[in-house]
Amino acid sequence: MNSELKRMIDEASRVVVFTGAGISTESGIPDFRSPGGLWTKMAPIDFNDFLRSAALRREAWRRKFEIDKTVQQADPNKGHMAIAKLVDMGIVAHVITQNIDNLHQNSGVPPEKIIELHGNGTYARCLDCGERYELEEVRAIFDETGECPECRACGGFIKSATVSFGQAMPEREMRRAEEATLACDLFVAIGSSLQVFPAAGFPIIAKRNGARLVILNREPTDLDSIADLVIHDEIGPTLAPIAMLN
Known about the structure:
By secondary structure, the protein is an alpha/beta fold. The protein folds into 2 domains: 1-28 and 75-118 and 169-246, TPP-binding domain (Rossmann fold, 3-Layer(aba) Sandwich), CATH 3.40.50; 30-73 and 120-162, SIR2/SIRT2 'Small Domain', CATH 3.30.1600.10. It is built from 11 helices and 9 strands. The protein has helices spanning 3-11, 21-25, 38-41, 47-52, 54-71, 78-88, 103-106, 135-145, 171-183, 201-208, 235-242, and strands at residues 15-19, 92-97, 114-116, 119-126, 132-134, 158-162, 186-190, 212-216, 229-231. The strands form 2 sheets. It has a 6-stranded parallel beta sheet with strand order 3-2-1-7-8-9, sandwiched between helices. A 3-stranded antiparallel beta sheet has the order 5-4-6. Helix 9 (171-183) runs parallel beside helix 10. The longest helix has 18 residues, at 54-71. It is elongated. Keywords: Metal-binding, NAD, Transferase, Zinc. Residues 1-246 form the Deacetylase sirtuin-type domain. Zn(2+) binds at residues 126, 129, 148, 154. One of its GO terms (molecular function) is NAD+ binding.
């Protein structure tokens, strides 16, 4: 157990956890941004290109369904479960996440405690009216016709409910994340390279507002120098004893 991290959590009155891809790699989900990851082999489709090109919309959905073969097999790991227990104990107030895999929800964290900065890849929405669509329905139409379905309510484009490159960040979630960050006295960044802005700005905001900052990541980050505690180690084995998981 990392005794210093446990002491800081015990001393805090309001903890916010911030998670990135590193926590989900321990569940077998690849980190697309890392060297050798999917995005180094296949450039992401920009949001504006998705809007302008039917061919690129088809390609986006083809890639989505291919990636889901891996993502949908993943289960929450000890890191997710430890965070869920700390939320249940009233120690962690909110979980701000860059991840789109729904593993925090699957681990038992109440949806209202989770702030998804980059959306959620387990369902889709119409870009115009916001109607929700389950992936199974979209997949059935795509497999049968080879085309991307249009919204039955308004005829708009249906897209995975994630934030693509070139797409605006969700205003409500960004506002919630800022409010949670400013209200905490301990901010724990877990499994994030802290290079993707504006999401990576929240640890800086917390630190400038007087909160203590902990960074738990296997590799060094650009913000290590401002953190009160830096742990370069595996996430699940580090957090599980602190949450007293068996």
